[in-house]
């Protein structure tokens, strides 16, 4: 924001390149110990009580378990070691978790450990990226703001792909910042590689930050326009190569000897990327009900609109610092409107601001499936904006305009956090009543110039940081201490989760049935409709189970003919009735009907089970 010095025109703040400021100032002695404390505290927060969530989302835990048993299942992200069908996402995050399981033994801790470490690494890289443009204090504040975002604590202790996605996007941002130093092609290519692997983690969501990365490099790189354009083209090729190698490998692999790509309509990852996980997420469709599901169901994002990120679905997850971030972005771009092209403060604002605005707008207006935890992708952008804005405005507080904007950031944060805390009035009600007077005191101190008194200034600065981080920090800590399970986890004191499965509790998992599956010796101990039922069986019995139809039982894998062949070859011992599925485009309904017509049912632990090795009762 370049408010470190006042220009000859007292009505505005003059630009001072942040890069020059950090290079000439050197690295104070307190920086490294402070960074160490930040990272150790982050690790403690994310590793604390890590196994409380059990297997978290059974859907992904089932695939991780399969990856620890079979290398082909690991490569494709299969739901079972026999490679019938994959999860409905690319497998990069599963690679990390399954490799951890192979090294340490499959368990809740080994599965969730890589994601917790992704959180620590994300905080470290965000600190490093912000420090290079705005100094060590801004870097520390950005890292702390990310670590203390509730949805970050939720997802960095969970097994969804979002943890690795955030790390790769922050890595891409760090590489972009490094590329700005000397128009370095190598760093820009690395940024492209990071986003390419982001595609292999959660497909097109990784590309929401691409416009910001491209814009900031095109505007602020120290090279001629032609070179900048060519370098960006090279980075685009790096994205395609890093994302495309797995796509090509799957396309070249004979379909009859690999698993069906779950979620796709034509058994290809490209259709999955641009269909179910792509345009269908944005515009909605038959398999992406989105915010309209159940009349604007909160767990599916609620109603679309400009204020969606502040609403009941997303507000408590991500919006604690969002008002301050938007104030910082608007004010910063105004203050640097006359800055030279290479000004690093404005470059930082374009980077983190573009990240935040594009992602928030897409999330706010997409009509397809979206869940509250998706907003973890916003956390680094918001943290970067708030940190840069707060530090630069504090440096330039001798200018009354900067002082007013800083007071506005504090006031907006305090008032909005009070409103958010009031949404859970039964939890720590004292907190919001402490926050209001603290906010008022900091705002008054800024407006009346108490910061000009040395010791009072230090107290005021500390109080300002506390005002901004107190509420989200408390909500984050209570989130980190809770166990979360199911496919739709949410942050907060209750540990609420919704959706299918969780821990090892999904589906019919009576002790009698699990004991029966453990005694099997066939390729698959059982088959059942949908992963909601199959995951609980596989995780509890530590055997291979076919999730007929994939996540919701709607995918055509296995087909009825394939299932008949498995049965004829003696590869499946039991069919467990129930679970998701029907007579849609998947074969789960047909398989259920065929089994019911040809095999004798028995009840085990309250569940209807068919022994497929006993021979059909009819032809």
UniProtKB/TrEMBL annotation:
It comes from the Bacteria. It is found in: Cell membrane. Keywords: Cell membrane, Glycosyltransferase, Membrane, Transferase, Transmembrane, Transmembrane helix. It is a multi-pass membrane protein. Pfam families: PMT_2, YkcB_C. Residues 88-245 form the Glycosyltransferase RgtA/B/C/D-like domain. Residues 515-598 form the Putative mannosyltransferase YkcA/B-like C-terminal domain. The chain crosses the membrane at residues 29-48, 103-125, 137-156, 206-225, 232-253, 318-335, 347-367, 373-393, 400-419, 431-450, 457-478. InterPro entries: LipidA_mod_glycosyltrf_83 (IPR050297), RgtA/B/C-like (IPR038731), YkcA/B-like_C (IPR056785). The keyword Transmembrane helix applies. PANTHER family: MANNOSYLTRANSFERASE YKCB-RELATED (PTHR33908), UNDECAPRENYL PHOSPHATE-ALPHA-4-AMINO-4-DEOXY-L-ARABINOSE ARABINOSYL TRANSFERASE (PTHR33908:SF3). This is 4-amino-4-deoxy-L-arabinose transferase-like glycosyltransferase. It comes from Amycolatopsis thermophila.
